[in-house]
Every structure is written in C-alpha cells, then in structure tokens.
Design a protein that fits this description.
Blueprint (H helix, E strand, L loop, with lengths): L4 E5 L9 H9 L2 E7 L11 H21 L4 E4 L2 H12 L3 E5 L4 H16 L3 E5 L21 H10 L39 H6 L4 H14 L4 H4 L12 H6 L4 H11 L11 H22 L21 H8 L6 H13 L4 H14 L4 H11 L5 H12 L14 H8 L4 H6 L13 H12 L7
Parallel strand pairs: 1-2, 1-4, 2-3, 4-5
C-alpha cells in the first residue's frame, strides 16, 4: 500500500512551480521537511549572509505551508539519518526533492537516493532550479561548453523551457508520530553580533517578496535594463539573485514572465532591448551551473590548469583593506562597503572590485571567492566560481588576465556623477590614500602573467 510522500526542501523554498511538491501533492498525503546539515556541503558551507537569509526564508515557507494545510517539519542532519527517521514517523513510502548541482551536494544526494532505495523507499528527484539541466545542453560532439555565446545559442535553439506550474492551494497533510520539529530559531542561523540591521532594511526574503520584486522590475526596470544594469548609481537591476538562489522563485517563472512582458514572443526572437539582456543574464546563470556540474573541481582550482602556477601574493594587510573598503579607490571601496552593509553588490562593481583584488593586489581569486561567499545574500557556488575565475582569467569564457580594469576610469564611466560613491563612501575626512599605485600594479601583474605557460 502506498503511503505519504516526504518533500525534502533545499534550495527551492517556495510552493509555486515546485516540481517535487507538485508530484507529492498529486500522489496524496504530503510531509514537507527541511534538514539543516551544513557540514555536508563542506568546504562551502553556507556563509553568514546566506544563513541570515535562510532564517527568514524558512519562516516565510513555514507560514505558506501552514496556510496550505501541511506544516513544515525541521530537523538537523545528517540528512540520511533524518530522512530515515521521518520515513518511519510518517510511514512514508516516497521521498522527493529538487536537484542541486554543487559537487558535494551531488555526491551526498546520490548516496542518499541509493540508501533510501535499498531501504525499500521510492526516492525521486526533479529539476526545479534551472531552465535546462547541465547535461541537456551540449556541443555537437556531446561535450560541455566552455564559452558562453555558443552555449547561449544552443540553449535558445531548444524548445522553450516548460511553463511554470501554479502553487497547490491546499495540501493534504500526512499524520506524523515522532519527535517535535526543531524551531527555526534553534538552528542558530542569525548572527550572534547583530550586524544585519541594514540587510533588514534592504531585503525581505520569501516567495511573496520575490514575486513582488519580479512584478516591480517588469513594470519599472525591464525596458531600460540593457543600459541600466551597468549603472550602480541607479536602481537598474532586478535584485532577484538572492530569491533565485534560495529558490523562492523559479527561473521558469521569471523567464516566461519576461517573455510575457514583451508580447510573449519566443526567446530566440527577442534580439534587442532590456528583455533580451535580462534573458541572457538568466542564460549566464544556466552556464554557471553547466560549468560546475561538468567541471566539479573549479570551486577550488582554476579551470585552466596552467593558471595553477600563477604567483599569487600573500598580503593580509591588502586583503583586509579590500574587505573593509579601505583601498583608497572610491569605486572599489563603495562596492565593498555596500556588500558589508547590505549583503549585495551591483554586478558591474563586482567585476571592478574583483579585478582590483586579483590584478592590482595580485591576491588569489579564491580569497575573493571566500569573502563573497560569506558576505553575499546571493552566494551561489556556481555563479561565485564563474565570476571569480572570469575576473582572474583562469576560467571558462574568462576575461584575459592582461585586461586590467583601471578603478579610477571605471568609476568615472559607470558612476559619472559620483552618486554611488557618495552613498557608500561619502566625504570622509579620514579616507585613505591608495594602497597601491595602479600603473605600477599593472606592470607587476603583467610581469607575473609571464609565468603562465600558455602566454609565453
């Protein structure tokens, strides 16, 4: 006889367009669960800003599930032990979840699926976080892409992504006999020292907030996105990245909403304007997951193996100055202070601050990746890895290392009136002198590049 279905929530903290939840609801009784097991994601356990977001997102998810009639049960890991206990408590015969693509999580999930199957439980996973899965887009030779433009063309050549599925209005809750749910507060996700005041003012985690942010962007930001996305002095981006990372909104929902906003044309027919630029950004998100799936070593090592010999500098003083926004270069410092205060940084400025770290200071991209990982509310391992290896010249489709941003002219170009710098740096009397001379740093960076074999 078939029993209830456990829905294991992870990076899919929503009811709308949630394939695992929809499959469970179609079967009958549903048991929604969340398991806190950060050690299973080592060495990239969720950082401090991500944990802050997760605390509030879980609260929003729990409220939505309560309203739908099936309360969320929270447990601590190990995940397999928790799932086995929950299977017994619910008398469940099925466990379902939406797939993730980080290397450690793939290994964990594969082992769990086998163990549950061996236990006689049906374990099934779904694609709930990407338009297409990493293995669905390949070259004519069946190999993964390493350059974005042909990857993007191949993605557009496919049929449109599946239409999103509406959230179930009512869920049939499974009865449970067992220990009480762990409270969200007991997980200890919030910082012991309250540094999150500005984040509280900037963000509202949760599925409902994600939907509102998308609606506002479609109405106010989409038409001007192609130019606005490069200007940190204005609100020209969607700011959906943390909602997408936590799975509070699905990429399919966003993709089809953008298409609908410009008349419902096929994506491959949208060739100009804000909608084309924004769909392309969703394409970069797909590309990042494509790369981390096919090249699982890249969170720790360069995709281009010859860069393993690059002579990075150990400079704790310079690193600390960069982290705290005390480099003496206003656009760099504004970005780093925005990050520290809000858990987010404008994407154009992310490129500028990354270039400064790896080229002006010649500090390893891994140091930057780890700092972003701890401080970003949208700290996504695939995107973080792609972005930092792009800046360092050692990844897929990377900017060549000899392309070195001048932080002064970058600030003049993208913040011409100093609005962004004024907001985050102001006119401080104790503002530091530049910690390096850019012209001299550029020469040293190009000299260091000669050690990489492919450019000798």
């Amino acid at each position: 006889m078939s029993g209830p279905t456990i829905v294991w929530f992870r990076h899919d903290l929503r009811l709308d367009d949630n394939p695992a939840l929809a499959a469970a609801a179609a079967r009958g009784e549903v048991a929604p669960v969340f398991i806190w097991a950060p050690a299973e994601e080592h060495p990239w356990e969720p950082g401090a800003a991500s944990r802050w977001w997760l605390h509030h997102s879980l609260g929003a998810l729990a409220a939505a599930l309560d309203k739908a009639g099936a309360p969320l049960v929270i447990r601590r890991g190990p995940s397999l032990d928790a799932l086995r206990s929950l299977v017994k408590e619910y008398g469940a015969t099925h466990v379902v979840w939406n797939r993730r693509y980080e290397p450690a999580v793939i290994a964990r999930d594969t082992a769990i699926k086998k163990a549950l199957t061996d236990d006689g439980v049906t374990a099934e996973s779904f694609n709930g976080s990407l338009l297409f899965e990493p293995m669905q887009v390949a070259t004519k030779e069946g190999r993964p892409y390493q350059v974005f433009t042909p990857f993007w063309r191949a993605l557009l050549a496919r049929d449109e992504p599946a239409e999103p599925v509406a959230a179930p209005r009512k869920l049939k809750a499974a009865a449970r006999r067992g220990a009480a749910s762990v409270s969200i507060d007991a997980l200890g996700l919030l910082p012991a020292i309250d540094w999150s005041g500005m984040m509280e003012k900037t963000w509202k985690p949760g599925e409902a907030a994600a939907a509102k942010r998308l609606s506002r962007f479609l109405e106010q930001g989409l038409s001007g996105y192609a130019a606005g996305r490069d200007r940190p002095d204005s609100d020209g981006t969607s700011s959906l990245s943390p909602h997408l990372h936590c799975g509070e909104i699905s990429p399919r929902r966003v993709w089809h909403a953008v298409r609908a906003a410009v008349g419902g044309r096929p994506a491959k027919a949208i060739t100009t304007g804000g909608a084309e630029s924004y769909l392309r950004e969703l394409g970069w998100r797909e590309f990042a997951n494509h790369l981390i799936y096919h090249f699982p070593h890249t969170p720790e090592a360069p995709l281009r193996a010859d860069y393993a010999r690059f002579p990075w500098v150990k400079d704790p003083v310079g690193l600390r100055a960069w982290q705290r926004g005390r480099t003496g270069y206003p656009i760099v410092d504004a970005g780093m202070r925005q990050l520290w205060a809000t858990g987010w940084m404008h994407n154009r400025v992310r490129m500028i601050v990354a270039s400064f770290l790896v080229k002006d200071l010649r500090i390893s991209w891994l140091e930057g990746a780890r700092w972003f990982w701890d401080t970003l509310v949208d700290a996504d391992l695939a995107a973080n890895t792609l972005g930092w290896q792009w800046a360092a010249g050692c990844g897929a489709d990377a900017a060549p290392y000899f392309r070195i941003f001048n932080p002064t002219t970058q600030g003049e170009k993208f913040d011409p009136n100093g609005v962004y710098v004024q907001k985050w740096v102001g006119t401080q009397g104790d503002y530091p002198e530049p910690i390096v001379d850019h012209a001299e740093a550029r020469k040293l960076a190009l000299e260091a590049l000669k050690t990489v074999s492919r450019v000798k």
